[in-house]
Amino acid sequence: MRAAVLQKRPGRPDVAASRYAGSRHPDAGERAFAYAKACGIIGKSFVGKRLPALGKPNSLVDLGRMLFPDVHRELPGQELLADLERRILRRTIRHIISILNSYVHPPEMLIRQLRSCEYADLKTCLRHISAGKPVPPMLSDIGRFGTVHFEAYPDLEAMLADTEFEFILAHDLGAIASPDYDFIPLETELDLRYYSLLVQSMRRLSIYDRYLAEHILAEEISLRNCTWALRLRTYYHKSPEEAAEYLMDIKMRRDSLEQEIEEIPGDIHPRLGSVLLGVGASSKEISLADEARQMLHFPPDSRAAWKGWRWETLLNPEKPGEYWTADPRYFQNAASRYIYNLSLHCYTRMSSSLSSIFCFIKLKQFEEDMLTSITEGLGLGMSGRDVFNLLGVLQ
After folding, report:
1. Which pLDDT tens digit goes with each residue over 64-73?
2. Considering its fold, how many domains does the chain have in total?
3. What is the pTM of this model?
4. 343: Cβ–Cβ under 8 A, 6 or more apart, which residues?
């Protein structure tokens, strides 16, 4: 899979860096400090060259010693698993918050990235309320950046008062508390609100600050739509028309930059890249649900029908003598690797841009997902290498 970097014409200076440095942004000191601190954290994180090391542990004890060499806890298997997951989550959040605290006024875009865990926790709480379960044992403590009053669980009115989630209170709360409640529409609405607000916060930034982040986010939303559409078709047996109702129809337009940049980093297919850059139609908006709408009409068991589709390379490959059908889990894992590789390549390209910290948060979130998967796999008796092979991490 190709993950390109910013390309400049031979002999041309780095226009972006020189122009930005000359203007000297008022918070340049904060930005430099945040980026330097982020680099220190990334250097000790299990991403990039350190990622393969996660394939070495063969037990939870081995993993615990690798991740937390200064803390040794003798706990039974399931207790150790839960303890490791809790510490992994807390450290990820602590690292991200430490970067946000580098700014006197942390940028809204970065705060909204952090708050993705709040959206995920709320979904978990809603499902626990429906099932009559106690409060989930692992909720993300994001301190002053949190808005939901999780301590009021299971009282939804108290939990969501004076937050952007108050729209949930307009739903039938009695129905939500029933075990047969259909969460698909509500969770789709939560996803749409999260990404819409993230896009809005990004659009308020300068082109320089949002350039790389905007491209990565557009790719992520498109892939989320495609993954969700594939899951709806495969696991919920929705028709193309029914599945289309649950897509995030978010539109995005890219401003044409004055920089001498010839290629968007990591773009798998040039069509979307040229539109986002404003080539030929600078004011044109595209829907990030287009690829998902297209694939809804492909036969899920005919590999040839998917040929030429923008995300074709992320599909599970055909194997001689085996029946092929589109695999949602394989596609989701491949999409996650793509966004990770894109963030890894873009992280150091515009160090004084907020896009660099956007990429940092993406890398830390990927690391957390990977560490959690390794932990759960080891708890099931798998090795780290087995989990890597299952997720296709090193492909």
Report:
1. 999 999 888 8
2. 2
3. 0.89
4. 216, 359, 362, 363, 366
